[in-house]
Structure formats: C-alpha cells, structure tokens
Inverse folding.
C-alpha cells in the first residue's frame, strides 16, 4: 500500500566540521520518500521552483516515487543554509528562504486520497490540517512538527496532533509541547492529546517509542563517520512508516521492528551529505544493518 | 569472590529542581560498595574524618561491607556541594572540600591483597597506581577517572589505564582522553592504550560497551522520577563489577548482563537522594527491573 508524504523539497547549503556543500538536494519529503521507497510505494506532494534541477526529479523517479503530486511553479525552490559543530546533534540555521514553499497549499491528487498511510512532515499545522481534510480514512496518520509551531501555532498544532496516530518529534520538542522536563511524564501528557504512539528522536542516542502500554528504546548505530545529520529524522520516519505500509502490522512487535528499520535508514543517511548514501543503498545492506542492530542490543535473560 | 574498591566517602550537599539536602552520605566508594553488595562481598578502602556519622558506618556494615580498610582520622570528612538543573545529566560543583581525603594514601590491608576484582574509583591516578602495587594479580581491574586528571596528570593516568582491564568513564571524558570527537574512533584509540573493555556512561541515555570485537548498547531506564543523579556512575560500576565478581563470567554475554545489572542499579540510585533508594532495595526488585530492561529493548529478528 502506498504512503503519502506532504513536505518540503529543498536545496540545502551545509557546513560541518567534515566539509561544506552548496545547494544540494534536501527537504523533509525528499529524505522521507527515498527512505520509504525501499519498503513501499510513495506518493509525494510538494512544490519546487523553476530552478529545481531536473536530475533530482530523475533520481526520485528512479526510486519509483510517484510525483503526480509535485508542483513546479514560478519562482525559486526553498533554500536552507545550516551549520553543525562537532556535536552533530544540533543544527544552527544560518538562513532560510522559503521562496515557493511560502505559499505551499498542498492539493492532494484524487489518486492519492485513499492513502492508508500518511506522513505530515514538519510544516505549518494549518496546512497539515488542510491535507487531512483531503484524504479519506487513512489507517495511520504520522506527523512531525518543530518548536516554531509549538510556540506560534499551538491551537492548530493541537488539532493536528489530536488526529495523529503516531507523533514523531525530538526530545526538546517533547518537553516543550508537554511543558514538562521529565520525558516519561511528558509522553503521558502528549498521549493524552490524542496519539496512540509517540516516538521521540534522540539524534545519536537513538529513539524512544511510547504507547499507552509500553516503552521501547532503540539505540542509534555507532558510526565511525557521521558526515551530515541533515534529514536523519525524516529518513527515520520514512523507513519507519514505509516498513509499516509494507507489513500492515500495527501490533507492538511490528511497530518495534519499524522503529529499528527507521533507525537503520537514518544511520545510513548521515554517512554522507544529502541523499548520497541512500541513493546507492541496497535492500540487502538494510537487512544486514538490521541484524547489526540486533547484535548491538542483545543480552541474555536471567 | 570479594570486590575491592578504593575511593571516597563524602558528605554531599545537593540542590536539584526537586529538593535540597545538606551533608548526606555520598562518595564514590559508598555508592559502589552498596550497589556491589547485592552481588558479592565488598572490601572497602577509604578515609573519613572524626565527624563522619556513626549511622553511616552502621549502614555499610548492615550491607556486609568489609570496613577493615576504612580509616577514620583526625580532621573533617570530604565534602562536596553541587547543583543540578532540569537537565540532570550535568552537575555544577559549587564547592569541594577534600579535607582528610587530601592526604588519602590508601593502605590495602593484607586480607584484601588477593582481591580478584578491583575498582579504582575516580581519584588521583598516582594513588590508583599505588593501590595496584599493593594487590597481587587481580583477575579484573576496573577504573574510573575524570577530566581533571586527563588535563593535569595525563602520564600517570595513562600508566593506570595501561594496567586497567575495564575502563568506565563518561562520554565527554572519552572524547577528551582520545582527543577525538567521534565516539567509535575515540574508543578504538582508548582500547589501544591497554583496556580490553571500555564502558561509556551516557547518563540518561544509557551506556555503550566497546571491546575489540563488538559494541553493546544499553539504554537507561525511563524513569518518572529522577530525583538526584549523584553517584549514578559509581552505582553502575558497583552493580557491574559486583555481578561479574559473582558470576566469574568474563565472556561477552556475561559482561553484557553485567552492564544491564549496572544500569538497573543506577536506575534505582537516582530515584532518591543519597543511597536512600539503594538501602531499602531488595534483590527481587533488581531482578524485576532487569526483566523490564529486557522488555524495553526487545525486538524481533527479521
């Protein structure tokens, strides 16, 4: 079954201690789509400007990502300029040019409206709500957000979260949304807002998944080369929801496996700039790393 | 088989967002000993002043901790004053009074010298070396240190580390000791200094264990109440080495279980100030939480 993603396509300029790149392919919908494409069909809704390189379109098409929902309009593509220090967990935004993304008013093509799995990448929650009005009865709505919307559009965000099945946010966002320093308490209060599942992304410390019944802790993969963490969270979400769309398994065990597949995909994404590592990845490499995650975390019962 | 620990006994004054306490029982040897006492006999070497409350001595005795190596000398007991913010991972030291600990020159009683398991808590590496000269052929030497010794006594510290089997330090210390930001690379360079095993304590993110062959990632237990993280690292080390001293199992699988027991003990320690939670703990609670760790991390193979 196809996964529908609504989010950004961007040209990123990034500086890390390991290098500097200009106007490379980025954006939440891009990272999500490519990661999800290893597991499921992907329907992408987004917008780019006339300057968006055709080679990026070709790359997405090669991954069998359905681009009937991608609009190309007059103007420039969304640009982001960011910088990371040796602590690769926190990006410093140097410049954001929304450009054509500023007036993004997603139209969901008829062919996409029966999507069973929907990912609302980090965009204005009012737009996320408009997307939800256009889709019929999805089985799973997953959603991301950021501090800016928590601080500036809290009411709309709460509306979105109420309709969300799986909220995927980072640790600081969790605390800020719940107004609570303790993560366990924060999660309980966020689950009370509607979602059945909350996944907290913790960067190079992994991810925590909270449901009403259980907590699952997934590590990050210890990497010898972390080049660029941009897009790791969206890549995680893509692997996670792509796997679920393929397995249709929403049982605790299946969702835990999906968290590991998400972590696997994120661990590859950060090994190179942009989607460079994801674009050459094979499914057997994904399975191999999944097994490495198992070895990494296994210990005997007592 | 007994575990020998050489470290501090202290009276701590601590402020956290959850409370403020003055002159409570603390110190690396105290946390370590009480945690280890659930698994093995403990021989403690340390020093206190005349002002050290007799009730603390009684508590250690009740835990069957052998105190023949504890000296009580003229002067005041070591005092530490610290403060934590909502991010309970980083302590801010407000005051340190070494007092009688300043001239600590540990004498290992004859009865302790055949110890098979030795823990050198965080003290001057020159003193750690003096301890090692007094013990015969221990099977396992485990060791902790801190940034101060990395910056001020690096040569002596490297001597100690060379003789150490299991180095147990935190993430910042790992990077600083190896002069390397990437943890995997840092670990490889530290293992080249001598230790067979490196355990990196990551506070509320858990612990990573590196050997020449494998990496093991253990989560922290998600707690609804973290009251005071003081002593969590030493408690971890106590549970870890205590379990190994009891099992005698230095195989990969056994050491992984020890890491989980260490994490279990640390998860209890932080639930209350001082050793208050550890002092009422039962072994069946420890086993229960070990099983919770298993549930927390389990996912199916593919």
């Amino acid at each position: 079954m196809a996964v529908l993603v609504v989010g950004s396509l961007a040209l990123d300029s990034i500086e890390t201690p390991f290098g500097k790149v200009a106007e490379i392919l980025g954006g939440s919908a891009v990272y999500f789509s490519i990661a999800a494409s290893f597991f499921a069909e992907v329907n992408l809704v987004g917008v780019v400007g006339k300057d968006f390189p055709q080679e990026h379109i070709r790359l997405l098409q090669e991954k069998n990502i359905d681009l009937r929902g991608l609009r190309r309009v007059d103007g420039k593509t969304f640009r982001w300029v960011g910088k990371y220090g040796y602590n690769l967990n926190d990006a410093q935004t140097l410049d954001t040019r929304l450009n054509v993304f500023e007036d993004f008013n997603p139209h969901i093509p008829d062919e996409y409206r029966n999507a069973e799995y929907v990912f609302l990448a980090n965009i204005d929650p009012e737009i996320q709500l408009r997307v939800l009005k256009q889709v019929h009865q999805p089985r799973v709505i997953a959603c991301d957000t950021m501090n800016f919307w928590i601080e500036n559009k809290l009411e709309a965000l709460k509306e979105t979260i109420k309709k969300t099945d799986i909220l995927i946010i980072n640790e600081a966002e969790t605390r800020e949304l719940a107004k609570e320093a303790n993560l366990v308490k924060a999660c309980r209060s966020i689950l009370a807002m509607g979602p059945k599942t909350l996944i907290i992304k913790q960067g190079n410390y992994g991810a925590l998944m909270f449901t009403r019944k259980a907590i699952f802790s997934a590590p990050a993969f210890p990497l010898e080369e972390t080049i660029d963490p941009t897009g790791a969270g969206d890549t995680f979400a893509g692997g996670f929801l792509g796997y679920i769309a393929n397995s249709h398994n929403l049982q605790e065990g299946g969702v835990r496996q999906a968290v590991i597949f998400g972590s696997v995909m994120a661990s590859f994404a950060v090994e190179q700039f942009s989607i460079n590592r994801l674009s050459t990845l094979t499914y057997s490499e994904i399975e191999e790393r999944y097994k490495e995650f198992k070895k990494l975390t296994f210990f005997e019962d007592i």
